[in-house]
Amino acid sequence: MWNEEELIDSLARGEEFALEILFEHHYEALWKYVLVILKNTDDAKEVVNETFFRAFRHARHYQVKGSFTGWLFRIARNLSIDYIKKRNNEIELLSDIPEKVINDPLKEKLFEELYCLKEKYREIIILKDMAGYSIKEISQIMGITTSAVKTLHHRAIKRLRDKVRHVRRET
What we know:
- By secondary structure, this protein is mostly helical.
- It contains 8 helices and no strands.
- Helix 3 packs across helix 4.
């Protein structure tokens, strides 16, 4: 069994097996994260693949200041923002989210309302509640304190809850 530090060292030496293991470990969480940003499965796959390509290409420059996971998420976030800019912000709202992600009307409404939240709130909910990262991991990914993560998460949940209550009254 490999630990992440050994894998990162192997990755920095250009050993592809390390990329494969790290890819398997991080792919799904990164894909969910990018999918919510880009709202298109094919685009999300493309950005996540590019994230791993860049991580492999630049691994020898990685400095252990934070977590490797945080570094991957920052790469994915930056690539997602670049991708949106290239497409002139013409992204489709929910039209390509797979059935396994949204399989009932309430979940669809939740996703719609999630997209209406400010980016920082949306990002916290994605990382904590969808990708399952801890408060500490999220603080490393976003580069903020753990207390800021807790506060933002609380506010994000409250705002989303308020929006869903509003939606439930309409249906």
